[in-house]
Amino acid sequence: MLAFLHGLVSIGNGAVLFMMKIVEIEYGSDLYREALILRDEMLRKPIGLKHSEADLVAEQTYRHFGILLEDRLVACLMLVPHGPEVAQVRQMAVLDELQGSGYGRFIMTGVEAILRDEGQIVRIFLNARGTAIGFYEKLGYNGVGDTFTEVGIPHLRMEKPLKDEAPFSGG
After folding, report:
1. What is the 3-state secondary structure (H, E, C) of 69-134?
2. What pairs with residue 106 in β-bridges?
3. Whole-angstrom Cα distance, residue 53 to residue 27?
4. Quick one: 138 exposed, middle or buried, by C-beta within 10 A (0-12, 13-18, 19+)?
5. What's phi and psi for 85, nearest 5 deg?
6. How far apart are CA 134 and CA 50, in angstroms?
7. By C-alpha distance, which of 43, 71, 42 is closest to 151?
């Protein structure tokens, strides 16, 4: 488990409440199992789904990230490779009681920063649930195509370049 980014959660008067950090989670670890429970509780159980054994086996090749807040996993996501330069964010989840408090933004922007620093992934995409499209638009993701139904819920494919295009040099 590698710690990458740190952030502070503060209240209006500037007092620090907690130190949080984004970590890369090792497949099969205790923290991975916590992330699996979080994803199951926030994303799958509400729509009557369970993880299959095939789903979990496939996750061995994915990267897993989480936010630790005082050593408690409060948010997570998976990053699925799609070739050498493209990755898909899947199953981003934040504890129900902390939704709307900036943790989703923190993990998304933090993982994007990690990918930019690594320099290999140039584009990221995701299938946003209809209720989350506005959240991802605020983070700079753009809708591609029409909405579609996945797991019985409307979704929209959204993309974001991670590298700025080279400036036009004229000529």
Report:
1. ECCEEEEEEEEEECCCCEEEEEEEEECHHHCCCCHHHHHHHHHHHHHHHHCCCCEEEEEEEHHHHH
2. none
3. 14
4. exposed
5. -120, 0
6. 27
7. 43
Tokens of residue 48, six digits: 């009557």
The one-letter amino acid code at 107 reads: I
If pLDDT is split at 50, 70 and 90, which confidence band does 18 have? low
pLDDT digits (tens, 9 = 90+) for 43-95: 777 777 777 777 788 899 999 999 998 888 999 999 999 999 999 999 999 99
Q: What is the pLDDT of residues 118-153, one digit of tens each?
A: 999 999 999 999 999 999 999 999 999 999 998 888
Q: How distant, in Å, are the alpha carbons of 89, 95, 109 from that of 102? A: 18, 12, 11
Q: Which residues contact 21 (CB under 8 A, 6 or more apart)?
A: 3, 4, 5, 6, 7, 67, 68
Given a contact cutoff of 8 angstroms between Cβ atoms, the answer to whether 35 and 66 are in contact is: yes
